[in-house]
Write a structure and sequence with these properties.
GO terms for molecular function: zinc ion binding. InterPro entries: Znf_ZPR1 (IPR004457), ZPR1 (IPR040141), ZPR1_A/B_dom (IPR042451), ZPR1_jr_dom (IPR056180), ZPR1_Znf1/2 (IPR042452). Belongs to the ZPR1 family. With 224 residues, the protein is of the alpha+beta class. The protein folds into 2 domains: 58 residues, ZPR1, zinc finger domain (N-terminal domain of TfIIb, Single Sheet); 146 residues, ZPR1, A/B domain (Jelly Rolls, Sandwich). It is built from 4 helices and 12 strands. It has a 5-stranded antiparallel beta sheet. α2 packs antiparallel against α3. It is globular and about 50 Å long. It binds zinc ion.
Length: 224
């Protein structure tokens, strides 16, 4: 499914859900139009729990990246998605906004991402409701879940926005050339001082960053 190449390493791990011994696969990949990333994926034979993490393999990019996908058809739902844990997710049509850190890092598809959001919110809301009879909140959550499901049935076109301050997220183009994919837009932006502060970059010496990433927009602090 994923356009991955490169050697896969496996090492023993424990399941994050049931603590059974399982295998973690790790591979470094170079995705077209994307930087090198390290993907660590594990799935548990005992309980079916799956987990994937994405780590940047290269230098810290000097700019953040906003990916916007107009989802209209099944091809869009099948696009590969890498969402790093520094990415936030927005779906304006249903007023959904998940801050960075929510869901962690994921390797999935557009459709899989919606399922993951639904599952994750279900867990949170199921927990919150407990045995209480908070009917209003329960009804609101069910309404929202219906709207989430409708995204997958493509009743109406919608927009997925993945905003990653460290530019470690990716959505695959459906065209051979990314320039021909007019439903996918990428926008690079300067991180704010606050974003750098949140990422701990203001105190980091980034002067060794590859010049290929552009001029040094991040102040380096060599005076320490
Ligand atoms: Zn397990």
């Amino acid at each position: 499914m994923m356009p991955f190449s490169g050697q896969v390493m496996t090492f023993p791990s424990t399941c994050g859900a049931c603590a059974t011994q399982c295998e973690c696969r790790m591979f470094v990949t170079n995705i077209p139009y994307f930087q090198e990333v390290i993907v660590m994926a594990s799935s548990c034979d005992a309980c079916g729990y799956r987990n994937s993490e994405v780590k940047p393999g290269g230098r810290i990019p000097l700019k953040g990246k906003k990916i916007k996908v107009h989802v209209k058809n099944i091809k869009d739902l099948n696009r590969d998605v890498i969402k790093s844990d520094t990415a936030s997710i927005k779906i304006p049509e249903i007023d959904l906004e998940l801050v960075s850190g929510t869901l962690g890092g994921l390797v999935t598809t557009v459709e899989g991402l919606i399922s993951k959001i639904s599952e994750s919110l279900e867990r949170v809301h199921g927990f919150t409701f407990g045995d209480s009879l908070d009917d209003t909140r329960r009804r609101k959550w069910k309404e929202f879940r219906t709207r989430l499901d409708k995204l997958k049935s493509l009743d109406e076109p919608w927009t997925l926005i993945i905003d990653d301050a460290l530019a470690n997220s990716f959505v695959s183009p459906v065209a051979d050339d990314i320039k021909d994919d007019n439903q996918l837009t990428l926008e690079e932006y300067e991180r704010s001082w606050e974003q750098n502060e949140e990422l701990g970059l203001n105190d980091m010496d980034t002067s060794s960053a590859d010049a290929a990433y552009g001029s040094a927009d991040v102040e380096s602090s060599n005076d320490g």
